[in-house]
Amino acid sequence: MTVPRPAAPPFVPAAIRRAWALLALRPLTLLAAQALVAALLAASGATEAWWSSAAWWPVSGVLANVIGGALLMAAARAERLPLRALVAPAPWRRGDVLVAAVAGALLVALATLVPVWHGTRIWGDPSVGTAVLAGPLPAWAAWGSLLLFPVTTALVDVLLYAGYVRPRLAATRLGPVGAVLVVGAVLGVQVAALPFLPARTFVAWRLPMLVPYGLALLALISWRPRLLPAALAVAFGLALAAVVPTWLAST
Question: Domain boundaries in the chain?
Answer without folding.
Answer: 13-83+93-250
